[in-house]
Amino acid sequence: MRWACLLLPHLALDGLLRDVADATLPTVLIDGPTQRRVLRDVSPEAGALGLRPGQSLSTAQALAGTLRILIHDPQQESRQRDLLAAWAYGFSSQVAVFGRHALLVEVEGSRALFGTWQALQARWRDELGAMGFRHRLALAPHPLAARVLAGIEDGAVSDDLAALHARLHALPITRIGLPASIAQSMIRMGLRTLGQARALPRASLARRFSPKLLAHLDALYGERDLPLNLYRPPDRFEARIELGFEVESSQALLFPLRRLTADLALYLVARDGGVQGFQLLLEHEGHPASCIRVGLLAPERDPARLFELARGRLERAELPAPVRALALQADDLPPFVPERRDLFSARPQQSSSWDALRERLRARLGEDAVHTLAAPADHRPERATHSAIEPAAASPAGFNSPPRPAWLLHPPKLLPDTLPQVLAGPERIESGWWDGQDIRRDYYRVRTRDGQYAWAFHPHDGDGRLLLHGWFA
Asked: Is this structure's pTM higher than 0.85?
């Protein structure tokens, strides 16, 4: 097996920076009591001004003039970690959250799908960069070894066991993932490297330290399996963005909305599913949250289409108060079937399909504004089609009829031509006895003296003259 470690040392700050439009402004992440705020993390722009984690907030404000200050939110950090776990699940079925800032992914089983580690690593870096997460990657035969190497060197690869063991032997005790108290105790014993600790008798280490030390060292060298809680994507998606200020214009909500729909699409791709309905919750000060439901006629997971549909409904919504937070929830997550296309499609790539156009019109004009024609199992021409909001269902098996005119007259009228040319017929239509509107007619396809093709019938209780019911194109 080959395990990759994705280390995210700036997960909390990067997750918050994804929610802001201008990520280039010097930003610090603060933590601690209100009276003694300290810097937990800093953005690269803030680091260029001399700001460092551990400094007090007052010192940072003195060094930097304009500074964006964000407060650490453990729940938000956990949501971002789960999002990245769902993303990694799209590459491997064995994904584990390890600690607060690392993901362990088994990549050997996915080699046939995604190619070599070099190709997969390049793809990961591109996608993580697009999502806005700073990261470090490493590869090793054992998951714990991959985690340790990621903390030592970004891009480290150790496929050979002998080379891996030699590299582990040379690592300082403080860099192998041990608790600080155990590492300091070993240093006071004169142990500086992992190789020196491995050279001691195991019984001696077991007497001096907790059994967890030997278990940790064995897992590091692959002599014992590391217990991992493998990730499984949930059956419900939920994400929320705190705006930090009151927003009155729907245009100002488009940036967080795009972020939420992109995260939803990312989750759906990793889950290999689609979404057929979700809801937007807009939170207000002093008012109940406004709920905007977005329904789709077919499962979808394209981020651009999801954003367009949600945007159309958001722009038409009437809100009772300014918005303080925006959330997206999705429960209707059916399997996704990709659109089937011909190898040599005549449709230009830049044009939209009928389904996409229908969804956009419903989003812009409303659920009840777009209709389609449905064909129920009824032979009566007046009831053969009707308007419906949902997509037209397929005709029942065995229900076939001769060609019908596209233009029906309501009500039928006398055919002006008294001697038309009969092209086909008669076709007996006798139906409707169950609802009291039964008919009994003999239909003909005729051609008039003017060259027009008509559909006419003899009513069973008529005087023998033809009644015109429709025109063929």
From this structure: no
